[in-house]
Write a structure and sequence with these properties.
By secondary structure, the protein is mainly α. Helices cover 65% and strands 0% of the residues. It is globular.
């Protein structure tokens, strides 16, 4: 849970930087809301927050993106588009 909390904090801090964008196009991955929510719960997120974020990002990111985000120690470890997508969802759900 500490890792997820740290990652969420990093995402919040990095969101303004992610808005500057990057030139790579990860292409998403189209994971379903249920798959994404379960991945966040598996990483220690509360079910209600995981479901809210998952509903907002479903179809836009892959399960691999969720894993990369959850395991990141530094915002630079996560694709800028993924960071922005998840960061915006987190702000809408818990912000």
């Amino acid at each position: 849970m500490k890792m997820l909390t740290t990652t969420i904090t990093l995402a919040a801090l990095a969101l303004p930087l992610a808005a500057c964008g990057g030139d790579d196009d990860s292409g998403g991955g189209g994971a379903s809301a249920e798959e994404i929510a379960q991945a966040f719960v598996d990483q220690g997120a509360p079910e209600d927050e995981a479901a809210c974020v998952a509903d907002k990002v479903a179809g836009s990111i892959s399960l691999s993106d969720v894993e990369d985000f959850a395991n990141a120690v530094d915002p630079d470890d996560v694709d800028a588009d993924v960071l922005e997508t998840i960061g915006e969802a987190l702000n809408g759900c818990i912000g």
